[in-house]
Write a structure and sequence with these properties.
Bound molecules: adenosine-5'-triphosphate, magnesium ion
Family: Belongs to the ABC transporter superfamily. Spermidine/putrescine importer (TC 3.A.1.11.1) family.
EC number: 7.6.2.11
GO molecular function: ABC-type polyamine transporter activity; ATP binding; ATP hydrolysis activity
Radius of gyration: 25 Å
Number of domains: 2
CATH architecture of the largest domain: 3-Layer(aba) Sandwich
Distance between the termini: 30 Å
Number of strands: 20
Function: Part of the ABC transporter complex PotABCD involved in spermidine/putrescine import. Responsible for energy coupling to the transport system.
Keywords: ATP-binding, Cell inner membrane, Cell membrane, Membrane, Nucleotide-binding, Translocase, Transport
Shape: elongated
Helix content: 25-40%
Strand content: 25-35%
Length: about 400
């Protein structure tokens, strides 16, 4: 597909995502008429399976969540992402009904959560520390919630069995938690969350107790299991790779607000702020001022570079406006010779090399003092004769590599 047409398509998608983010449909239509199921007529209930409308949460002086609007689709795996203390767990706890909402409304499948008694809420939450009952066997742990509800006999054992089969833990049914690995315990906790067939599953840092290798395997397993069950799932993580691998869509939170919403691809390729760009993946940020702005391109002058930055899409804003151009490390090439064209390059010296196995990160300190990070494959390194410390090189990137950020 033609790159620009592709960009335009994605931008359109992001804009419509964002407008739906900032205006998650309220539960009543403009004339105030509400359908029996809580959805205004004409709306697809599956698109608004979970509706969070203008939700605020205050703990005394602290405002943990500041006016969040969000719709989650039925069957979607949605990730809430953000740094520590930004309000992720608080939002999840409100969805679980474990924390009251200070302002706003939460609807699940068209029903106002505040109106539902706790035992009737179609939600199950797996906590940041998913403690299993240590003295109970795997099967008793999974059966616990159902037993509380009075399920017994064949129905109970079938449900427990099915849940354990699903997470491939049936053969460990008689073991105690301490006889299991971290990843296995995590799967039992998941079976315990799924056995009651919740409409909405909430996972708070589900992988936080696992080491990196099991974590990656478990991420894939979890996605497969959730797919099989078809449950709608909102998970919290502060691991951006985890969110990227697992989620259909994600929201980046900062200080109690959603700052960007979209598919992992949209948020990574088209961050809407310096915060998103640096939070999801790493990036190179060049501060400068707009010196030419046309519908199909923009030129920016930055003290970081000897030449202008050129991006092949325009923005709306006055000349001279301060902007930041974000260029991902994998979009940056190293060259031995002076690049052609009077834009998107800089000259410098290699001041750091981090070998990462599958790729290598080169830190190039430009003449301006700006450090640019380039992510190079072994192939790319071979093509430029394996540059090393103190080598003089040029960094350069294409017009489609940069994203213009105005906040
Ligand atoms: N019960 C409480 N009373 C007072 N303040 C609280 C309470 N619970 C959370 N907070 C505050 O609300 C803010 C958001 O907390 P929250 O637990 O939602 O963060 P988080 O995004 O889940 O962080 P982490 O990634 O560290 O788990 C924090 O400033 C926290 O100190
Ligand atoms: Mg938390």
């Amino acid at each position: 597909m033609h790159q620009q047409a592709f960009n335009a398509g994605v931008e359109q998608a992001i804009m419509s995502e964002q407008s739906s983010a900032s205006k998650a449909a309220p539960p009543t239509s403009s004339n105030g008429r509400q359908e029996p199921n809580g959805f205004p007529s004409g709306m697809n209930p599956d698109d608004n399976f979970v509706q969070i409308v203008d939700v605020v949460k205050k703990f005394g002086e602290t405002t943990a969540v500041r006016g969040v609007n969000l719709s989650v689709k039925k069957g979607e795996l949605f990730a809430l992402l953000g740094s520590s203390g930004c309000g992720k767990s608080t939002l999840l706890r409100m969805l679980a009904g474990l924390e009251s909402v200070t302002e706003g409304q939460i609807l699940i499948d068209g029903e106002d959560l505040a109106q539902l008694p706790p035992y009737n809420r179609p939600v199950n939450m797996m906590f940041q520390s998913y403690a299993l009952f240590p003295h109970m066997s795997v099967e008793s742990n999974v059966a616990f919630g159902l037993k509380q509800e009075g399920v017994k006999g064949g129905e109970l054992s079938d449900s427990v069995n099915n849940a354990l089969e699903l997470v491939q833990m049936a053969k460990f049914a008689k073991r105690k938690p301490h006889q299991l690995s971290g990843g296995q315990q995590q799967r039992v906790a998941l079976a315990r969350s799924l056995v009651k067939r919740p409409k909405l599953l909430l996972l708070d840092e589900p992988m936080s107790a696992l080491d990196k290798q099991i974590r990656q395997r478990t991420q894939i397993e979890l996605v497969n299991i959730l797919d099989q069950v078809g449950v709608t799932c909102i998970m919290v993580t502060h691991d951006q790779e985890e969110a990227m691998t697992m989620a259909n869509r994600l929201a980046v939170m900062s200080e109690g607000q959603i700052v960007q919403l979209g598919s992992p691809h949209q948020v990574y390729e088209y961050p809407n702020s310096r915060f998103s760009a640096s939070f999801i993946g790493s990036t190179n940020l060049f501060d400068g001022r707009v010196v030419e702005d046309e519908p199909d391109h923009i030129f920016v002058e930055s003290p970081d570079l000897p030449v202008r930055l050129y991006v092949n899409h325009g923005i709306t804003g006055p000349l001279g406006m301060p902007v930041t151009i974000s260029v991902r490390p994998e979009r940056i090439a190293l060259m031995r010779k002076l690049p052609e064209g009077a834009y998107n390059w800089g000259r410098g010296k290699i001041t750091n090399i981090a070998y990462m196995g599958g790729y290598t990160l080169y830190h190039v300190t430009l003449d301006s003092g700006k450090v640019v990070v380039a992510n190079l494959s072994s192939l790319a390194i071979g093509e430029i004769d394996s540059p090393t410390f103190d080598d003089e090189v040029y960094v350069r990137w294409s017009a489609s590599a940069g994203v213009v950020l105005t906040s």
